[in-house]
Amino acid sequence: MPKQILITGGAGFIGSHLADELLRRGHRVRVLDALVSQVHGEDAVRPSYLDPEVELRVGDVLDPRAVADALEGVDAVYHFAAMVGVGQSMYRIADYTAVNNEGTAVLLEALARRPVGRLVVASSMSIYGEGLYRGASGPLVPGRLRPLDRLKARKWELADAEGRQLVPVATPETKQPELASVYALSKYDQERLCLIVGQAYGIPSVALRFFNVYGPRQALSNPYTGVLAIFASRLLNGLPPLVFEDGQQRRDFVNVADVARACALALEAPRAVGRVINIGSGRHLTINQVAERLATVLGRAHIGPEITQTHRAGDIRHCFADISLARELLGFSPKVDFDEGLAELAGWLEGRIAINRVEEAATELAERGLTV
Ligand SMILES: NC(=O)c1ccc[n+]([C@@H]2O[C@H](COP(=O)([O-])OP(=O)(O)OC[C@H]3O[C@@H](n4cnc5c(N)ncnc54)[C@H](O)[C@@H]3O)[C@@H](O)[C@H]2O)c1
After folding, report:
1. 41 CA to middle of ligand 1, Å?
2. How far apart are the first and last CA of the chain?
């Protein structure tokens, strides 16, 4: 049955791909998006990549009137509007808390008055802090944030009390959250708020914890978003990607097309209601591998990453997804191969002028004492 769907933040990277996926499935899509300048540039206009079929309402999730209006006639809501930079969240604390936490609260008050058939909220792997590990003697141990003295000594790997290195394993949803940044705290708050209020008002709600999403349309001008967009921006300017620590940290890169499909599946899946579900590729790569593969795809294989051997406040060592629950509850399986995904990203990047604000962002963090 075709539905009228609202995506908050739907003019952004993931939301616009989801809009395409939902339109393909025969739904009608409305977007509420403030077109914030950090993502869309100054004097932002409707992004050209947004399908003409999408009804765009330019408005703020903090504005109760705009939210209530956007909900008119809507059957289901995807809540994606957010500020999305981990590093930036550590000094724009009020802004992040306002948009992410309070924005969700405004939406939920409107939904309490006018419930919908499904609410899907974008959460994040960042809520885990460190991922899950296996100890030297065999048992699984939740990774803990690394002590500052080890980071200052550039001992990047996690170790047990005897100093033996822990081995990272895939992180399931049962791993206790360990909130290491204002951003992570706000994403946890968003998912809990949606599930709590959803249950109280009979709004079937699902929280999806996205891992590192990559693909076309990720804002290159925003130095606080995905690492691939940041690296691409540097490489296109002939500069080496700046890698924190030693570059051996592992992440799970999931293609935005796969994420959009997972989101679309969450619209109907009956057993997903009330659950939090990891959305990742189920594979992992080191940041150095990612930097090298991207440089190759962009025809800049001669530019190796610059290993900074510095730690950024709030950054974790390893985290990659166990996606068993997404397979079971959503029937989700990732389809896009990483190298194919990178090639598509490169095609999109071709001819694009990347504004290199990454250095500026790194300086901003350093000036605030947020790197060691
Ligand atoms: N990109 C990732 O790797 C990733 C990983 C985990 C979770 N997420 C989550 O997925 C969601 C989408 O992220 P994205 O990567 O597409 O980011 P994005 O920045 O491309 O999109 C976010 C959109 O929200 C809009 N927005 C921001 N503040 C707003 C406000 N106050 N009112 C209305 N609109 C507002 C922006 O204009 C933008 O279009 C976010 O909730 C993010 O936290 C993303």
Report:
1. 14
2. 54
- Spell out the domain ranges in the chain: 4-367
Residue 213 Cβ inside 6 Å of ligand 1? The answer reads yes
Q: Is 33 in the pocket of ligand 1 (CB under 6 A)?
A: yes
Closest to 215 in 3D by CA, of 259, 163, 157, 247: 259
* Per CATH, domain 4-367 is 3.55.10.10: no
Phi-psi region of 144 (alpha: psi -120 to 50; beta: other; left: phi over 0): beta
pLDDT tens digits, residue range 23-49? 999 999 999 999 999 999 998 999 999
Which atom from ligand 1 is nearest to the alpha carbon of 62? 31
Chain mean position to CA 129: 14
Residue 171 has pLDDT above 90, yes or no: yes
Q: Kindly write down the DSSP assignment for every residue of 187-198, as one continuous string.
A: HHHHHHHHHHHH
Confidence (pTM): 0.93
Tell me the two tokens of residue 55.
Answer: 């009804």
Q: Ligand 1 within 6 A of 36 CB? A: yes
